[in-house]
Amino acid sequence: MRTLTRRIARYLSNTMLALAACAAAEIAFADTIAVIGTGRVASALGPGFAEQGHTIIYGSRDPSRAEVQALVEQTRGPASAAPQAEAAARADMVVIAVPGNVALDVVRSLGNLSGKIILDPTNIVMGGDDGAPTHAVETSNAELIQAAAPGARVVKAFNTLNYMTMIDPASSGGPVTIPVVGDDADAKAKVVALAEGMGFEVIDLGPLRYADTLEEMLVIWVNARNLGTPFDYHLRRRPAQ
Ligand SMILES: NC(=O)c1ccc[n+]([C@@H]2O[C@H](COP(=O)([O-])OP(=O)(O)OC[C@H]3O[C@@H](n4cnc5c(N)ncnc54)[C@H](OP(=O)(O)O)[C@@H]3O)[C@@H](O)[C@H]2O)c1
Question: Ligand 1 pocket test: which of 35, 96, 98 has the largest number of ligand atoms within 8 Å of its C-beta?
Fold first, then answer.
């Protein structure tokens, strides 16, 4: 009888420990995400991440603006708006949802981002001599951002699809792949989870030095759209061998 009582006590104790671990894991996973910018991509990713249980702080040059407050209202879950640097300071992950040609200056203005994940969906495109769009930096925005914030963990993702597809992946008419690159495995895993949580397939294409390839993928995407053949990226996985 005493053995049975001890067994039950041990079972209950282990169950309590397991439940406590699950609760701790959930708290750790429910990150605070600063979405810098309040435009099209911010309005797609902020609500998309909030629906997965994360707390969203929009970083705006004017957080009191009516459109910014409307975005906060339409974000299901804990959401608020703050000046850009304040939003970044309070977050575990910082999404740089600003025009590509100001992204670097914006990152520099955000203060110390050491230890944080930076999610970079930006593209930097200019008109080429032939009138067609061209990637406007020699390396990539993501690598320039990493150099400007060396203690942060930069992940490039969400730059190869339109914001409307981010809001409604089904509108693409089939599966959509989000390619992801970055040097930090843990940071990349968190971004992969966010993209999968929004309904996308994800393919890890390697370290951050391949970010220029992802940015060029967007240039090709724009060219095709301009030529009348819009597409979405879907990289079909081969069956396991
Ligand atoms: N549009 C797309 O479908 C799409 C898809 C994938 C990736 N991207 C990339 O994602 C980034 C954001 O694109 P978007 O279409 O969301 O742009 P957007 O609609 O123009 O919004 C950008 C936001 O950035 C903030 N901002 C603008 N100028 C700024 C400046 N000089 N300094 C600081 N903040 C500034 C503004 O927020 P506040 O006024 O509140 O400060 C603005 O709402 C771009 O790099 C773009 O290439 C776009």
Answer: 98
Q: Where are the domains of the chain?
A: 29-226
The dihedral over CA atoms of 85, 161, 55, 20, expressed in degrees to the nearest 10, equals -130
10 Å Cβ neighbour count for 26? 10
Helix (H) or strand (E) holding 201: strand 201-204
Whole-number Å distance, alpha carbon 21 to ligand 1 midpoint, is 39
- DSSP conformational letter for 111: -
Which residue's C-alpha comes closest to atom 23 of ligand 1? 37
**pLDDT tens across the length of the chain (241 residues):** 444 444 444 334 333 433 343 344 443 467 999 999 999 999 999 999 999 999 999 999 999 999 999 999 999 999 999 999 999 999 999 999 999 999 999 999 999 999 999 999 999 999 988 989 999 999 999 999 999 999 999 999 999 999 999 999 999 999 999 999 999 999 999 999 999 999 999 999 999 999 999 999 999 999 999 999 999 999 999 999 8
On whether the CB atoms of residues 36 and 89 are closer than 8 A, the answer is no
Beta strands in 51-199 (DSSP E): 55-60, 79-83, 93-96, 117-120, 125-127, 133-135, 153-156, 177-182
Question: Which ligand 1 atom minimizes the distance to the CA of 158?
Answer: 6
Atom of ligand 1 nearest to the CA of 163: 3
Q: Global pTM?
A: 0.90
Q: Is 163 in the pocket of ligand 1 (CB under 6 A)?
A: yes
CATH code at 29-226: 3.40.50.720
